[in-house]
Each structure stands twice: as structure tokens, then as C-alpha cells.
């Protein structure tokens, strides 16, 4: 079906241009689309058109789509909505998702929205807002049922049935003692098939729980690895505060991976889908890093300036500059990317710095020996043995240096509280460029005797 | 607690060296550890030591830990186990996880393991094995309950209670008609609080389902965005074949993100935790790309060879080579990383190639204008106006070229069936190096009149 307005094809259109008949056609098309396709459409178009699409959807589907979008895009859409619509979408979100959205909104709008909630919803939202950004508390749902370990299976099932609406999930249920301390966790599945006369304490399992003050990204990663639906969030004295659910953990990990991906490519994360991001935001996300890297690259100009006399003597050396700095950069990036990912997944920790260094020196030496041998043979054949020797030795030294630095830099970045992804890849290249040139000319002067 | 053997500190040890008393100490320490910490320990050590740790755990915890590891690491551990142990771990896995593990094992061992299963488990495992790698079928659980739309809520609940053991999940239940076609989905939560006399068709919702032949990575991404616990997998005639659960979708996305991360850093994915990977595997994962990139970089040597006369005339030009190729590479990588991630998330599709090109040309021009202005001023001050003009103009041209190429390359890669992450970043740098040099010397010859 082809629509004049191009609303579903990413062309220019606005609500006013949309004739009534056509709006009805688009609405019908949207209603027939699988929900994931509708989400994609909203993510692949401008904010104005995204808002129009949401408005044309039926109420429940529109809430579902809005829910699935990231908080940055949600905030932009909120700006394009009318007040009454905003309140609907906002009230429908879970407390933790609501807080993520509030973080993205200007303070005045956030306050107004918070005031619009009914007293109970407002209270739970403010509770979540009370935790530090980046902590588990900020992402938990405080809407949790109090189930005591002296209850029978039948009592628990009854209680859950009558209070299901008050809990974000009823599939994994924390069990507490009378002091509200978490004693175990039981799945609805297990409750459901258990002998109803048993005490719940007899069928519950040892809880996997997390402190509300813990780092959310680290927690989300290991939580997902355990394939759990939800896990209790507790305070220092093991008192139940809320639950963390798998869907929030997923959102966190996806966002963290997108951020790492952007930063390891040398730009700031967009926080929203590419096609819905205005050009000036794209430029803004990239220009700072480009400038910083270009300014650091002035270092390479200075290094070459120092060796200008050597260059004049043997211009042939200039020919290999991009190849050698490129190979150094590539080797460094390989190590940095591998270790950054391993740090994110928790496979490597700060205390492993010397194990990583030892491994990367060995890997770098082996890579350097292989590439150096190839480089020696080829360069010797074309430019003679002395130049070949310089190239071979330089590749050996540069690869070893680059792999070690690339492996260790992300760990140092993490240790000083910086994002390993920022501090590693983009800087590795520049660092390897400058250091590689010094190594290159030092070896050249030695071997060629200039 | 400090253990002589260093089993928990990553030092050398093997089972034979471990004295009985100490084994008991390690076992006690492990039992007291949170499960996620035990998983980390296994992932951060060698295969031999990982197998020892698993053996020292209590049975149920050991199965839980094994379950949480990736299939590559599972396969390596299987090699270090005794036969009887292997069968225990293998039988405990879900059919889809079992198939992922089988894929990593040598054919003879895989066959033997498959034969060891009881007939019913063997049958479901073979069913999953029948689907193509990379398809949804390969990851679904065929263990699904047949619930018909003419059943009442009470009947469904009864059936689920009595057959829970036969289903991977009972939290999201597909409802079929008598021809086994999926008509809707109902959550256990909804069933649980619904009026038991209602027909299940009255409370079920429109199903979000997926074809068994669909691409698993794409499916997993949008499935996770919808925050669902499970979704029905169907054939072309909408017949129920199985369910896809959130934990499998998570594993797939994590693995895909790790692969993208490795490839965009220019190495092959390790498929297992960094510290448990032997050095020679690390070298193997990197050497091929390094060689390919180094050989392509010979292009830059040739380009410079062509312009050697110009270089001899004005050696000052050599000073800026790393800065200019570096900036081109950075700009290209920024665009490539952003678009690769957007492709993975489904925010950009193949058909968007011209929208992306248009956006990146504009972004590249703006970045180039800003950097070019800075470059012109600085280079003019130090090396005079003519050199400044060459640097400024080159930066403008190189940034525009790099951003457009970087934005479009991942889409072209995907269109020809290659991995956007491989084909984009590592190649972008080399391509930008060579093209950037041509642009540089062309502008230099023009402006400086040499």
C-alpha cells in the first residue's frame, strides 16, 4: 500500500497535511502490522512523524510501543505530544522506567509529571528516584509482595492471586522472615505444582540477591547470565527493598553495549536510534573526540619534525609511515577491544592487570615475529636488505608494544574511573602512531647508520 | 582465606597436587560464594582448573554454573571431564542449549552424547538439530504444552499444573485451535487471577510469534525489546512448533554483540572468556586480520611511491601523513561504528542506504569544515599559509569522504551477505589511509604548484 504522505516511508509529512481519509488508511495499516514493525517505524523516522504514528495507533498498542522505546527517544516524543497524552503514557510506565524517562526530561517538565501521578504511584516513583544514578536501586521495582517464610504454599498462592496487581512480577517471589529479611526465593512455577500444605520455606531456594547500592551494569550482566526472571534487591542488613526484573537488566546491557560500541569507534553515544537523531546531534557526538584526537596527533607531527633530517637523508622511510603506524594501531585496537569487552563482561578484573600484560606481551611478540618476517622479506626484495631489516624489526617492536599497551590501557582506564572504551581505542591509535614513529626512526638510524 | 594451591587465585595447580584437606577447604569456600562469583572463577581460569572447580561444587550448583557458561567453554570443559560426569551435565541442559553445545563438539563425541540421552530427550534434541544454524528453530524449545482455545481457564490451569514438567516455560502460554494453529498467547499471571469459568480465548491476547526459519539474531533483538518472557515459534501455516524464551534471546544478543565488538576491533571473536583462552588461540584470532590489513596497507606504500618526487621536493608534507590518515580513519570509524550498531539493532536497514549517505555527507562536511578551519590556522602559523591551505582543504575533503564511505560500507557489507563489523572498521581505516593520501598529494601539488 502506497500512501501519498509517505508517513510510512520516511518522507516529509506533518499531521496537518494528512487528510482524514489517509489518516484512517495509515491507522489501518499500522493496526495490521506486527508490533515490532511498528516500533521500528517509530524508531526510523523523525520525532514529529513518530508522534503522529503513535497517535494513530490504538491505545493499548501505542502504550506498548512507547514502552519499548529508549528513554531519550521517549523524552523527545513527550515534547511533541499534547499534555493529556503525555500523562497517559507516563502513568502507564513502571516506576523504574518512569525514573529513566524523568532523567532525560527538563526539570520543570519532570516535576510537573511527577505531580500528576496518583499519591501511591508518586510515592514509589520518588522512592526509586532516591537512589543514585547507576545503582541497582534506580532500576528496581519497589512494588513487591511481602510473603513470609512461615506461610504455607496455599496461603502464598492465595495472597499472590489477590495482590498480583501490586507486583511488577509474580514469577519469581522473594520470601522474607518477619523482620523483612530475604530468606529465599520461590518461582510461581514451583509454587503452582507444589503440595499446597507444605510450608513455603520447604520449597524455596537459596536467594541470589543484590544490594540496592551495587553497580547496575555489572549486576545486570551476571543476572542475565543466570537466566533468572527477577531477583530480590536488599539493603546492607538483607532487608527486602524491591526486585530487579530481566527486562530492565536487558535494557541496561543493551544501552551499555551501544555506549561501548560508540566510544570504541571514537564518538559519544547517541542514546537514540540513528535515523531519528538530527544531523547536528550526530556532529556534536563526534566533533569533540575528533578534535581531541587530531590535537593529540600533533604529537606525530612533532616526532616527525625531530627526525626531519633523517627523512631528508632517506625519503624512502616516509613510504612506510602509514603501513607501520596502521599496523601498530590495528594491533593495539585488537588487544584493547578484546580486553574492554572482557572487562564489561566481568571476565577480566582490575586485579588481573599483570596477567593481561603477560599474555599480551606474548601475543604481541608472536604477532610481531610473524608480521616482521613477512615485512622483512617483501621490503628486502623491493627496497634492499637494510630497509627490509628496518621494517622487520620495527614491526616486531611495534606489535609487542601495541598489544601490551592496548591490553593494559582499558584496565588502567577502569581503575581510575574512566570508561575503558573511551580511553582505549581512540587513544591507543594515536599513542601507537607516535610511539611507533619513534621506534621506527630509532631503528632506522641504528641500522642505516644515519 | 589463602589456599596453597592457588586454585582460587589463578595460579598453577592441578587436581593431583591438591591435597584432600585442601580440596575440602576449597569446596567449602566455593559453597559459601555467591553463584555469580563461582561462575566468574570458572571463566577466569584455565580449562583444567575450571573442571576441578566444577567437580568440587555440590551437584545442583555445579549444573547451574555449567548452564551459565557459553557453549565453547562448555565444550572445552567437557573434554576435561570423565565420561560419567559429561553425561550428567549434558542431560541437564535444555534441548536448545544442548544443540549449541553439540555444535562446538567433535562429531564423534557429539554422536555419542546424543545416543546417551533417553529416547524422548533424544527426539526433541534431534528435532532442534534439524533446523538451519542461525535460524530461530535452532534456538527454540520444542517442549511446549498444547492448550486449545475452547478450554476454560480452569481447564488450562489444571492441564498446566499436571504437565508443567514437559514445558520449558509456563509463564507465557501459546493457545492453539484444533488444527494446532496459534490463536493467541496468555500469561500465567493473567490465567492465575482470571475468573476460572471464562474461556481462555476470552483472556488471551493477540500473539507476537515468529517463523522457525527467521534469522535468530534479528528476532532476538526485537523480542527482547518487547519485554516478553517467551513467544510462540510457528511454521508458514501458523502451526505451533515451539517457544523461544528470553534467556536464549539474551545469550544470542550477547554473543552477537561480543562478535561485533571483536570484529570492529579487527579480530575474530574468541567465543570464550579471555582469561580461559590459550595464547595460541588469541594469536590465531588476530593474525589473519593483521596480515590482510598489512597487505592492503601496501597500497599506501605504493601511493607514496608515486608521489615520492613531490615528497623529495617538500619533505614537510611527510610530517602530516599520520595526522591526516589518522583523522580520516577516525572519522570513517565513527560513521562505520554508528551505522554497524544501528544495523544490528534494526534501526537502519539496507533500503536506507541513500538516507544514510545523505546524512553522512552532511555530517562529514560539517566535521571537515570545523577541523579544516582549526588545521588551517595552526599549520599556517607554524609552516606558512600555503602548507596551511593544503592541510585545511585536505581535512575538509578527507572527513567528507571518510564519513560517507564509513556510513555506507556497513550497509553494502550487509547487502552482499558479509558481516558489517568485519567489512567496515578495519577496512575503513586502510581505505581512508590510501584515499586520504591521494587527496592530500593532489591538493598539495595543486596549491604548492609542484
Automatic annotation (TrEMBL), chains A, B:
Query: What GO CC annotations are associated with the protein?
Result: plasma membrane
CDD domains referenced in this protein's UniProt entry, alphabetically: CBS_pair_Mg_transporter
The membrane spanning regions, by residue number, are 287-307, 361-383, 390-412, 427-448
Q: What is its main location?
A: membrane
UniProt keyword annotations, A-Z: CBS domain, Cell membrane, Magnesium, Membrane, Metal-binding, Transmembrane, Transmembrane helix, Transport
| Highest taxon of the lineage | Bacteria
Q: Which GO terms describe its molecular function?
A: magnesium ion transmembrane transporter activity; metal ion binding
Q: Which cellular compartments is it found in? A: Cell membrane; Membrane
Q: Which residues form the signal peptide?
A: none
One matching Pfam family is CBS
Topologically, how does it sit relative to the membrane?
Multi-pass membrane protein
Q: Which residues form the CBS domain?
A: 140-202, 203-261
Q: Does the keyword Transmembrane helix apply?
A: yes
Subunit structure comment from the entry: Homodimer.
**Family statement:** Belongs to the SLC41A transporter family.
Q: What is this protein called?
A: Magnesium transporter MgtE
Please give the organism.
[Brevibacterium] flavum
Amino acid at each position: 500500500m502506497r500512501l501519498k504522505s509517505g508517513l510510512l516511508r520516511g518522507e516529509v509529512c506533518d499531521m496537518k497535511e494528512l487528510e482524514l481519509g489517509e489518516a484512517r488508511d495509515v491507522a489501518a495499516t499500522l493496526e495490521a502490522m506486527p508490533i515490532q514493525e511498528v516500533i521500528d517505524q517509530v524508531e526510523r523516522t523523525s520525532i514529529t512523524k513518530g508522534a503522529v504514528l503513535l497517535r494513530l495507533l490504538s491505545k493499548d498498542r501505542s502504550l506498548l510501543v512507547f514502552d519499548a522505546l529508549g528513554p531519550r527517544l521517549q523524552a523527545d516524543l513527550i515534547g511533541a505530544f499534547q499534555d493529556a497524552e503525555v500523562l497517559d503514557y507516563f502513568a502507564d510506565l513502571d516506576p523504574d522506567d518512569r525514573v529513566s524517562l524523568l532523567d532525560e526530561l527538563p526539570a520543570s517538565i519532570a516535576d510537573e509529571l511527577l505531580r500528576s501521578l496518583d499519591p501511591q504511584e508518586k510515592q514509589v516513583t520518588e522512592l526509586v528516584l532516591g537512589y543514585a544514578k547507576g545503582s541497582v536501586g534506580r532500576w528496581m521495582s519497589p512494588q513487591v509482595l511481602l510473603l513470609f517464610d512461615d506461610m504455607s504454599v496455599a496461603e502464598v498462592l492465595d495472597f499472590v492471586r489477590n495482590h498480583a496487581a501490586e507486583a511488577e512480577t509474580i514469577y519469581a517471589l522473594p520470601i522474607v522472615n518477619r523482620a523483612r529479611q530475604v530468606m529465599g526465593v520461590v518461582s510461581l512455577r514451583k509454587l503452582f505444582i507444589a503440595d499446597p500444605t507444605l510450608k513455603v520455606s520447604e520449597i524455596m531456594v537459596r536467594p541470589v540477591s543484590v544490594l540496592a547500592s551495587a553497580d547496575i551494569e555489572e549486576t545486570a550482566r551476571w543476572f542475565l547470565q543466570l537466566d533468572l526472571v527477577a531477583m530480590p534487591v536488599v539493603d546492607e542488613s538483607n532487608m527486602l527493598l524491591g526486585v530487579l526484573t530481566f527486562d530492565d537488566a536487558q535494557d541496561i546491557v543493551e544501552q551499555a553495549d551501544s555506549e561501548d560500541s560508540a566510544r570504541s569507534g571514537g564518538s559519544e553515544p547517541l542514546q537514540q536510534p540513528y535515523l531519528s537523531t538530527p544531523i547536528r546531534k550526530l556532529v556534536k557526538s563526534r566533533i569533540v573526540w575528533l578534535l581531541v584526537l587530531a590535537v593529540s596527533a600533533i604529537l606525530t607531527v612533532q616526532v616527525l619534525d625531530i627526525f626531519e633530517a633523517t627523512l631528508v637523508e632517506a625519503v624512502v622511510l616516509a613510504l612506510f609511515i602509514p603501513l607501520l603506524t596502521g599496523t601498530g594501531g590495528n594491533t593495539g585496537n585488537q588487544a584493547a577491544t578484546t580486553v574492554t569487552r572482557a572487562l564489561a563482561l566481568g571476565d577480566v578484573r582490575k586485579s588481573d592487570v599483570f596477567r593481561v600484560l603477560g599474555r599480551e606481551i606474548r601475543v604481541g611478540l608472536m604477532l610481531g615475529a610473524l608480521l616482521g618476517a613477512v615485512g622483512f622479506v617483501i621490503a628486502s626484495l623491493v627496497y634492499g636488505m637494510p630497509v627490509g631489516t628496518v621494517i622487520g624489526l620495527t614491526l616486531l617492536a611495534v606489535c609487542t608494544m601495541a598489544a601490551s599497551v592496548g591490553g593494559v590501557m582499558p584496565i588502567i582506564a577502569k581503575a581510575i574511573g574512566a570508561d575503558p572504551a573511551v580511553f582505549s581505542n581512540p587513544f591507543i591509535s594515536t599513542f601507537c602512531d607516535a610511539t611507533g614513529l619513534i621506534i621506527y626512526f630509532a631503528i632506522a638510524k641504528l641500522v642505516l647508520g644515519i
